[in-house]
Amino acid sequence: MKRKILIVELWGLGDLTFSTPVIAAALAQGDEVHLLGKPHARELLEPSFPALRFIPCNAPWTAYRGKYKLWNWDWLALTRLMIRLHAERYDIAVTARNDPRDRFLMFLIAAKERIGFVQNGFRAFIDTGRMFLTKRLERLKAKQHKVEDWRQIGSEIGLPGVAAGPMLDHNRYRTERMDGIFAGVKKPAICLHTGARIAVRRWPEKYFTYIIAQLRKNFDFHLIVIPEPLTLPSSLAGMADTSFTELSIHELVDVLGRSGLLLCNDSGPGHIAAACGRAVVSIFGPSDPDWFRPWGGMHKVILRDICPWRPCFDYCKFSEPYCMTHLLPQDVWQEINDHIRKLISTGALPDRLLKSTAQLADART
After folding, report:
1. In this structure, are 188 and 326 located in the same domain?
2. What is the structure's pLDDT at 363?
3. Confidence of residue 124 (pLDDT cuts 50, 70, 90)
4. What is the pLDDT of residue 126?
């Protein structure tokens, strides 16, 4: 029988890509699938999953700061949302978050089955949201990647095709603007995205300057630079062949899908590129790659345990994120270089990225 399923994923772009194995498998099976997420969820996912129905919600408990100031919540909008969701009469509602508010939401809308993960061991005593679930899942591993969370949920609700990884069909995001830009690109494209939603996840821009200089000495490529929105990458713009100051989500997916490699921070674009089947080198600091690394075998996480408090999951105790500022580019360049050469040797990147002997000689002089 056709089921009506609600997926609750109220967070960022990367989190949305993690849920795509369940979305794809449920739609392929003929289920009616709704996604409750931030307004950007539609722009990110609709081209790949046109049958997916979107319900926009900027949940106040997902704010980075001030999430517990209940007097600032838009209670009227939340009430209207609850009424709308209750009227849908969902057969199944699922969340991969250990968030009692997500579970309470699923309870309030009276979904017949409410499935999510619960804490075990001593943490079970403080897991206040477990009472709102009809099926309580325990993770199979102590540190389980979010993609594996969604796969486990998919198996629980009977989706045989859920074993695939995150997926976006980047060919469906083509834009005229990017068609015009890439028509003149003759070399393999490497993209650098310097941003991250949370400031403590951003590697200092001057460190990327060093890495790009080293890449130029060793490889032949077209460099695309995408800065953090509303900032001006003055030190990187002069090193780029193409740079953007503003992109829509459609254009972002289009750029990442046409690039062979993305160099980035621990951020949504890394997960988007991975879901498009593109290689990613990601700089990690305050979060844990066991849970949040780009999913797939051809990606590289750059990480050092410099700070004893790492991972702090974005809530740094210090005036600066030492796990990022003390992660020096000279110390990680060889690791990045080796990974790119490995990707070339395995065919994941084209061998024309390698400079010829003459080009290397010119670079030395």
Report:
1. yes
2. 63
3. low
4. 59
Predicted local distance difference test score (pLDDT) of residue 358: 64
User: In which domain, by residue range, is 215 found?
Assistant: 170-364
Q: Tell me the pLDDT tens digit for each residue of 51-87.
A: 999 999 999 998 877 777 888 889 999 999 999 999 9
Q: Which amino acid is at 190?
A: I
| Same domain, residue pair 118 and 180 | no
Average pLDDT on 22-26 reads: 97
CATH code of residue 334: 3.40.50.2000
Q: Are residues 116 and 257 in the same domain?
A: no
Rounded mean pLDDT of the chain? Answer: 93
Q: What is the pTM of this model?
A: 0.94
Q: Please name the residues in contact with 256: beta carbons below 8 A apart, sequence gap of 6 or more.
A: 170, 191, 262, 269, 272, 273, 276, 278
How many Cβ atoms from other residues are within 10 Å of residue 108's Cβ? 15
CA separation for the pair 253, 310 (Å, rounded)? 31
Instruction: Tell which residue, 207, 2, 10, has the closest CA to residue 102.
Output: 10
> How high is the pLDDT of residue 148?
97
Residues with Cβ within 8 Å of residue 281, at least 6 apart in sequence: 261, 262, 263, 264, 299, 300, 302, 336, 339, 340
Spell out the long-range contacts of 350-357 with Cβ–Cβ below 8 A and sequence spacing 24 or more: 350/188, 350/260, 352/187, 352/188, 352/220, 353/188, 353/219, 353/220, 353/221, 353/260, 354/219, 354/220, 355/218, 355/219, 355/220, 356/220
Q: Is the pLDDT of residue 314 over 80?
A: yes
Task: Indicate the residue among 112, 127, 156 that finishes a domain.
Answer: 156
Tally of domains in the chain: 2
